[in-house]
Amino acid sequence: MQPVLETERRPFELRDAHHVQQLAGHIDIAKTTLSIPHPYPDGAADWIESRQEAARLGSGYAFAIIHKDNDSLMGCMGINIASHHRRGELAYFVGKPYWGQGFATEAARRVMAFGFGSLELHKMWAASMASNPASAKVIEKLGMKQEGMFREHVLKWDRFEDLVYYGMLKSEYEVLER
User: Fold this and answer.
1) How far is CA 12 from CA 84, 106, 114, 144, 169, in A?
2) In angstroms, rounded to a whole number, what is the distance separating the alpha carbons of residues 167 and 90?
3) What is the pLDDT, as a whole number, of residue 9?
4) Which distant-in-sequence residues (6+ apart) come within 8 Å of 1 by Cβ?
5) What is the mean pLDDT of residues 165-173?
6) pLDDT at 23 > cutoff 70
7) Nearest to 121 by CA among 88, 89, 92
8) DSSP state letter for 91
9) Rounded distance, CA 42 to CA 127, Å?
10) Is residue 174 within a helix (H) or strand (E), and if so which, with residue range?
């Protein structure tokens, strides 16, 4: 079952699909993420519903980042699980109107606590395009350490992009949380 992780937000719901399309459809979001298309087509946010099944199976979780004051969607924070390896990949986007306000960092900290605590993961990791320093800043604020760069690893819009990989072990997380 998809858990609800409370900070100042509410759970992801299918009714958020239209707002996901609006936020993720911004060209500045699409150009800094690996898999968000531009333009963002109608129906592409139906993945929200399929993530419920992933949560039931324990293979992944998607959490809405919601502003409780006005119930508006600000973005998405997800974790994809490689259960055999007890490893989770953190992936996210935040809508452009909400950039630079700490929402991604807050949501990521809560998802990391869920991953290392409830899911008993051994490691959590994240990747960002080298051309997206804001994403790297969020990941570094979490205490993740750079583990390497895959040069020109992905093709995004006819341009090869470097991917920077970050990681944190549960033992490192526990030291930070003391």
Assistant:
1) 27, 16, 16, 26, 27
2) 10
3) 47
4) 55, 56
5) 98
6) yes
7) 88
8) E
9) 27
10) helix 170-176
Q: Are 79 and 117 in contact (CB under 8 A)?
A: no
Of the ranges 16-25, 34-43, 65-74, 118-127, the best mean pLDDT one = 118-127
The predicted pLDDT at position 81 comes to 98
Q: What is the rounded distance in angstroms from the CA atom of residue 104 to the CA atom of residue 92?
A: 8
Q: In the numeric block, which tokens belong to residue 108?
A: 């990521």
Least Cα distance to 151 among 125, 124, 129 occurs for: 129
Listed residue (110, 102, 146) closest to 128, CA to CA: 146
Per the listing, tokens 């609800």 go with 4
> What number of CA atoms fall less than 13 Å from residue 98's CA on the CB side?
20
Q: Residues 6 or more apart from 170 whose CB is under 8 A from it?
A: 116, 121, 122, 123
